[in-house]
Amino acid sequence: MFSIRRVLLGLALVVGAPGLLLAQFPVPTQHVTEDTEPAQIHELVSRYCRLDYEGARLDSQAWPKFEPIVWWKSNPAYTQIDVVARYSVDIPPESTKGKYVVTVHYRLLGVYDLTTGYLRELQVSNQNVDFLVSLENLEWRIADAENTSPHLSRAAMLKWLDQQINTTQDNAAKLRLQDALKQLQAQSGSPFAK
After folding, report:
1. 61, burial (CB in 10 Å: exposed 0-12, middle 13-18, buried 19+)
2. Sequence-distant (≥ 6) Cβ neighbours of residue 37 within 8 angstroms
């Protein structure tokens, strides 16, 4: 009886140990196919747009959130901030030589120029931005965008303006920021506002 337990215990170890060992290492469970690529590309660009919309491009501490989804190594320089009510990401068409072009449609509320201030859109204005997504070393990332200005929601822009007003020492800059804050507060953030 005692030896049967040993044999069963030994058998359990021989059969179970490889399974326990393999559980310690990640095993890829998804196969990339041409059928899933457009959905993956759409999700990648959507993640970038969501982070940008929430104001992460203006937060130097948030850049690590972008690193796994873009090929560039640092936040692109910008001279203006586009304030948007909403955005939508197209499903990309067929891949061309391992690359996709994904169009993002923004409903533009206005533009804040870092040197001249805020300019409100007076009528419905749509802005289309193409993102180039490429495959390198079996990994998809955004390689380029035709407009690298941050695209913030109204709420994120109001928060950023308030922070800048509280920290800037330059009187002219403070006046531009206060004017932008006043204009944006008076402006409807609805994507359907005229």
Report:
1. exposed
2. 95, 100, 140
DSSP 3-64: HHHHHHHHHHHHHHHHHHHHTTS--------TTTHHHHHHHHHHHHHHHHHTTGGG-GGGHH
Phi (first) and psi of residue 83, to 5 degrees: -100, 125
Give me the pLDDT at residue 29, please. 39
- pLDDT tens for 85-134 read 999 999 887 788 889 999 999 999 999 999 999 999 887 699 999 999 99
Q: Which residues of 22-47 are buried (b: 16+ CB within 10 A; e: fewer)?
A: eeeeeeeeeeeeeeebbeebbebbbb
Closest CA to 32 of 133, 132, 141, 140: 140
The length of the chain in residues reads: 194
- Return the structure tokens found at 155: 């709420």
